[in-house]
Amino acid sequence: MKEEYEEDDKEEEEEVVQVVMEEKEYEEEEDDKDEGGEEMMTHRKVVLSRLESNARLQTAVNHSEHVAAAA
C-alpha cells in the first residue's frame, strides 16, 4: 500500500514537472515574440513562480495525506 502511494506521488510529481516545463517553453516562445513587453515578462515570471510554488505545495500535501493514510 505504501508503494502505491509512493508511485502515485511520483506520477503526480512528474505531471507537475511536465506542466512547469511546458509553461517555461511557452514563456520562452512568447519572450521571443515580445520586444519591449517588459510588463508582460514580469507578469509571466510571477505566474510561473506561482505555478511552481503551487506544484511544490500540492506535492507536499499529497505526500502528507498518503503518509497519514498509511499510518
Radius of gyration, Cα only, in angstroms?
A: 16 Å
Principal-axes geometry comes out as elongated
- Order of secondary-structure elements: HH
Number of domains: 1
| Oligomer state of the chains in this structure | single chain
Tell me the major beta sheet. none
Average pLDDT works out at: 79
State the end-to-end distance.
Answer: 11 Å
Determine the strand fraction and express it as a percent band. under 5%
Poorly predicted runs of 5 or more residues = none
**Helicity range:** over 70%
Count of helix runs: 2
- β-strand number: 0
Structural class: mainly alpha
Describe the fold and architecture.
With 71 residues, the protein is mostly helical. It has one domain (2-70). 92% of the residues lie in helices and 0% in strands. It is built from two helices and no strands. It has helices at 2-33, 38-70. Helix 1 packs antiparallel against helix 2. The protein is elongated, with a radius of gyration of 16 Å. The relative contact order is 0.17. The mean pLDDT is 79.
Provide the fold topology.
Elements: H1 2-33, H2 38-70
Helix pairs in contact: 1-2
Biased composition (Acidic residues): 24-38
Region (Disordered): 21-40
Overview features:
about 70 residues; mainly alpha
Brief sketch in words of this structure:
This protein is mostly helical. The protein is built from 2 helices and no strands.
